[in-house]
Specification:
Its cofactor is FMN. It comes from Apibacter adventoris. One of its GO terms (cellular component) is cytosol. Helices cover 40% and strands 21% of the residues. It has 19 helices and 27 strands. The strands form four sheets. It has a nine-stranded antiparallel beta sheet with strand order 4-3-2-1-6-7-8-9-5, with no helix packed on it. The protein has a seven-stranded antiparallel beta sheet with strand order 19-18-22-16-17-21-20. Strands 10, 11, 12, 13, 14 and 15 form a six-stranded parallel beta sheet that branches. Helix 4 runs antiparallel to helix 5. The protein is elongated and about 120 Å long. The structure holds flavin mononucleotide.
Amino acid sequence: MTLSIWRYAHLTLALISFLFLSMASITGSILAFNAIENNVSPYHIHQIKQISLAQTLPVLQKKYLEITELEITDNSYVKIQGLDKEGNDIEGYINPENGNIIGVPKKNNKFIQWITSFHRSLFLHDTGRIIVGINSFLLFLIATSGSILIIKRQKKITRFFSRIKKSSSPQYYHALFGRLMLLPIIIISVTGTYLTMEKFNLFPKTEHKITSKQSPDPTTKKIDFKDIPLFSQIKLSEVKKIEFPFSEEPDDYYIIKLKDKEITVNQFNGSIVSQIDFPISQKFVNIGLDLHTGRNSIVWAFILIISSLYILFFIYSGFSITWKRKSPKFKNKYTKEESKIILLVGSENGTTFRFAKAVYKQLLEQGLQSYLTELNKYQSFPQAEYLLIFTSTYGLGDAPSNAQKFEILLKKYPQNHPVNYCVIGFGSMLYNNFCGFAEWVDKLLNKELWSKKLINIHKINDKSPVDFIEWVKEWNKIIPIKLYSDTKFYKYIPQGLKKIKVEEVYIPNDSKNTFLIKLKPGKIKFTSGDILVVYPSKENEKERYYSIAKINNNIQLSIKYYPSGLASEYLISRNPGDTIYARVINNTSFHFPEQANQVVLIANGTGIGPFLGMIAQNLKKTKTSLYCGFRQENEIVIKYEQFLEEQINQGKLLQYDFSFSSMREIRYVMDLVKRDKDFFADMLKNNGVIMICGSLQMQTNVEKILDEIVFDKYQERIIEYKNQGQILTDCY
Ligand SMILES: Cc1cc2nc3c(=O)[nH]c(=O)nc-3n(C[C@H](O)[C@H](O)[C@H](O)COP(=O)(O)O)c2cc1C
């Protein structure tokens, strides 16, 4: 709830100001670029902070007949006006160390003047300045609300700069770069706001004037500049302008305008005649201008350019996040209020949606008012006559993510009239809980007083159109609304498949229970932890997911062999040189953590597969340990051991430990974790990362033990570490 308030605040502020901010960022980056140009100009005096007036003025006095004015510009150029030894007028930029003229002042570049005026006031004078000031303040609020969103995302303020779970989504980059650019953007916005407020005199401006009683003595001989103590104290960087006395009259003085005061100095004895201290707000204006424009530092001006460009990126990525959130994945023709047939879908990877959409399309073709949505969007459907549930199952018989709220919503929104329902479950017979979630949904609906079961639950194994047709036939028998009963209407021809060459198939002599296959990836981009989706037949939509190890730039898969299993049977009978059809899924949530100080990899069985690649790719030599459980020590395990020993010798792995569950002493990988409990508790406490790959049962057991371990030692819960991205899992 609070998250959405901040999110809406962040979005609303961005919506109000994005046009202005885009223009201000573009013009701001041009001006910051101009500041760099000015800084590298030969007229820019870099030692301006070291040279005093007592050094410069005598040099000028010697070189020129008369100096009327000396000015230090905002770009640290030293400019003089006066007469040369021949009595000719001079005006130019000088080198304050030798007094030589090094350039003639030019009029400001028209384009830069135009950009400056647009940046400051949008060519709207005072109104424009007010708009600019307000929008600068809005930028400050956007940065603040964005910071709060990051704190909420990271759970704790102290984790503000901790690792963000990597993904290729715009959210990830928005948050990642948002944190980096936060400080400069806050500085830009605060100084922008301050400078506008100052312009409108919103701060008190009391000047403090001190006048000396001492009257000048015209008979005294003029003393040398270098002997005037005040002139030795004042550095050129503090000066804005010096007006020299017109004549040798006693009441003609040096008027020295500094950044924070104006001093009138007696030309004969160098005493201070009067001093006006500018208000403190003037000092802040100078600091504000330095920070807002980068006029005095190339590095800061460069940071300002980068920040301005990032503001443009944040506008783009922010709107793309909102667009993705708001834009419906699917547009219904009829509303849920008027629809008679409601199709509710639970799907993680979209295949179940495909079947539901194929049915939905046919219903629309027959002019039937139908409505298709996710199970998480369940509510009351006032006109519903039929409720068709299509859902897959994940985890250990759990709901896919877009169906997790269904049980609560079902209780919350009882239908107010009888509705016929049927459930079509999508799952895989390879799992113990085949279509477990669909069964649960069927049970829940059955209990509702308003529900009437139309057809018994149908279970579809492995997205099989043949299985689906069985349900269609049953439906067609009972319901007058007819659906196509040919598999071709429900088949899916996978797109974007790549041909990949087989390099080697390693089948151990003692057991082919687990085998390795090496593939030549060609130009495909991938890394260890990504997923290879293998299609045993190009025309067939059946697919299998395998976790990739990247070793010597090849794809290596560790595969469990299922006799007569579609994909494992297919892969084990490949020969070197054969090609297979596959595609890579970029699985960013299970990549080796780049920034972790320590990583522990935990696996069982073929779960070791991606870890072999991650270890081989550990060129940074991050402290990495591996714990793995197998049934017994056999040929493939010895092959793994040999590989891991090599990695230890190369410094890519610290240590590994294997457990065996069918040897004399029965040990599971959980037992190894329990044995090294202090090590696990401490490494998590010290921001280490644990990666788990293998069976879901092993994941559940390991997480349970880790939970006990961190609770015993530090009274913490494992869920917190999971939320912080310190426990990464890829189990099946
Ligand atoms: C990690 C994982 C866990 C799964 N768990 C189960 C399960 O417990 N029971 C089951 O019947 N199917 C399970 N499946 C299979 C999916 O439910 C099945 O592939 C389904 O067709 C996917 O549909 P979807 O693409 O719409 O999400 C699992 C699949 C994966 C990848």
